[in-house]
Amino acid sequence: MKRRDFFKIMGIASGAAITACKANNADRKIIPYLVPPEEGIIPGIPRYIKSTCTECPANCGLDIKIRDDKPVKLEGNGDHPINKGALCIRGQAGIARLYSPDRLTEPMRRGKDGKLTAISWETAIDSFKQALQETKSNGKEALLLHGLSTGSLHSLMDSFCKETGIERFPELELFNHNSIKAAYRNVLGLDLIPHYEFEKADVIITIGADIFETFLSPVEWMQQSSESKKNQTITWFHLEPHTTLTGSSADYRITVVPGSEPYLLGYLLNKLIQRKPLPKEVLENIPIIPVEEVLQKTEIKKEILEQLLSKLDKSKQPLLISGGVSLTGKNCSVTASYTALIQYMLDMIGNTVNFDHSFNNEKLGTDDKIFELQKRVKENRVGLGLFSGVHLFNTLPYLLESVKEIKFKIVIAEVGGPLTDIGDLILPLSDPLESWGDTEPRKGLKCLIQPAIEPIKNTYGEGDIFLALMGKPLSKTLYRDFISENMEGLKEDWINKGFIETLAPTQTIAISSTLTIPKVQGVYNGQGVFIVPSLRTFDGRSSDILLLSEIPDPLTAVSYDKYLAVSMQSAKEKDLTAGDVVELKNENARIILPIMIATPL
Q: Do residues 151 and 439 make contact, with C-beta atoms less than 8 angstroms apart?
């Protein structure tokens, strides 16, 4: 051992021994600051800044706890209108990604041998320009593929595509709630998803929408529900074909046969007293279903059906929502349209169903856009694909196989995954805790993302990367300036609060003149498989946070890996026991999973 190292170790050890003798030594440090900290920062004492969570599209407000210039804890922003101080497990675990050893550290280019080699940012940008030029000279298409985006980033990507000549493909999300949007477009002529006002309701009926887990803005709904129970008496019915945390929290959990929801809603449509009458031609197209058929199709008890009808009729401020598994499959459009009609006739719209502050996702592509992408790639029309913030490739292996055929694939990512495994040029992304950004999760609410630490790796924020690809100089503050211009200045009160609220335009509500009532296709016969979002990983975007795998599911106590929940009846019919491994396959995909027997509540 060198003499200098010996004295260094002994100095630290002796300092630790001395401080250990004192009961309170929080004001002392073994190694002092070599460079004095900024004014107002006290060594060892935490400080907080405001930001926005990006683990799901809800965009809850964050309080980032910083100690010694390092983020150490994420909590909810108590003043934020969405989550009011609460934060889900995904949001709190998001800090683990910042310090993950699996993060991408520098740009990489795939060579002819198929291996990725580290390159400089300047070389990476030149590679992009060269690939784009070759794509255009060969008469091929160049596409930007992105998930849901809002705020300044959405505007920047529009400018990027216009300047580079890259086509901006419709935004893709696995859970896009397009059935809800399509229903309101059909019934009211509004291509929007409304904001639901739980705190105003005295009766709530949720059909399939797991409002406490993954539906739109779960932390917000949980907070509103909690406040409502303190302030007034509410009755909450939750109808679902499978067991959820939401169902276990409702006053009444009702099991329904999958696909039978339109029979229940059609019955209510014809029996409820209309506060805002529907046009006669609309009602004539809604079939009158005998109560016996409703009970037989849904398997709901008669007294429950009568209670639902009575509660809705007597309620002053009812709220009815359909979503989740009830808006998948062959009857999703009927269920969503019937829900919208009941909301209109019971005067929920403008009260407990608010379109003025609707969710900001009009740019999301419909499910058929996935097939369009596959078709264009198969026809060898796409020569370059730029992927950023699109998560469904992690979940849909058949789609990943399709885009492999694109000649040059550029992937902007923070952590390696299925896309980086096939990418030709990898651009490493800074964590949201290291970069500037903003979001607008719903109309009239703009939320700030601001860095709590300098980038740990040789990475840049998403906005800075797009600006660099447009020919701007590489900078970790250029996108901040872009946001400031886009928002007419980053004012101090916005930075301190983490959000600003503005007036949203008022929506005119009226029954659409082109309304058509879709036909009921019947209930599911035999076995059905439903893919639902995860409380721990959502649509798979949080699966790289290994900490979340160690948290047991609150209902099943299952941790780690995926599983297939099978009803007790199905398990008995197929002679299955918990832990058996089964194979699920169709023409697009194949998956092998262990099973878990779902016990009813």
A: yes
**How many whole angstroms separate alpha carbon 305 and alpha carbon 264?**
8
Residue 521, pLDDT > 90, answer: no
Residues in the chain: 601
Half-sphere exposure of 403 (CA within 13 A, CB side): 31
Contact criterion met (CB below 8 Å) for 219 and 86: yes
Q: Which residue's entry shows tokens 């160690």? A: 550
Q: How many CA atoms lie within 13 A of 21 on its CB side?
A: 5
Q: What does the block give as tokens for 407?
A: 């000649």
- The C-alpha atoms of residue 180 and residue 218 are separated, in whole angstroms, by 17
Cβ-based neighbour number of residue 373 at 10 Å = 22
Residue 581 tokens, joined: 């491994």
pLDDT in tens, 181-202: 999 999 999 999 999 999 899 9
How do strand 203-207 and strand 235-240 relate by DSSP bridges? parallel
pLDDT digits (tens, 9 = 90+) for 197-236: 998 999 999 999 999 999 999 999 999 888 777 767 789 9
Cα–Cα distance, 277 to 347 (Å, whole number):
9
**What is the tens place of the pLDDT at every residue in 255-274?**
998 899 999 999 999 999 99
Residues with Cβ within 8 Å of residue 390, at least 6 apart in sequence? 145, 146, 147, 171, 172
How many CA atoms does the CB half-sphere of 548 hold within 13 Å?
24
3-state secondary structure of 461: coil
Task: Give Cα separations from 301 to 256, 294, 297, 601 (angstroms).
Answer: 10, 10, 11, 16
Angle at 26 between CA 25 and CA 27, to 5 degrees: 90
Q: The tokens of 167 are what?
A: 């086509």
Nearest CA to 452 out of 49, 38, 15 is that of 49
Q: Does the CA dihedral 181-187-189-195 come out positive or negative?
A: negative
DSSP string, 10-72: HHHHHHHHHHHTSS--TT--SS--SSPPPTT--TT--EEEEEE--SSTT--EEEEEEETTEEE
553 pLDDT exceeds 70? Answer: yes
117 burial (CB, 10 Å; 0-12 / 13-18 / 19+) is exposed
For 133-163, letters b (16+ CB in 10 Å) and e give eebbeeebbbbbbbbbbbbbbbebbeebbee
Using the structure block, give the residue that is written with the tokens 């046009």: 279
DSSP for 492-518, written as a single string: HHHHHHSEEE-PPPPPP----TT---P
Q: Give how far Cα 485 sits from Cα of 163, 482, 562, Å.
A: 19, 5, 45
Count of Cβ atoms closer than 10 Å to residue 206 Cβ = 27
- Rounded to whole angstroms, how far apart are CA atoms 24 and 26? 6
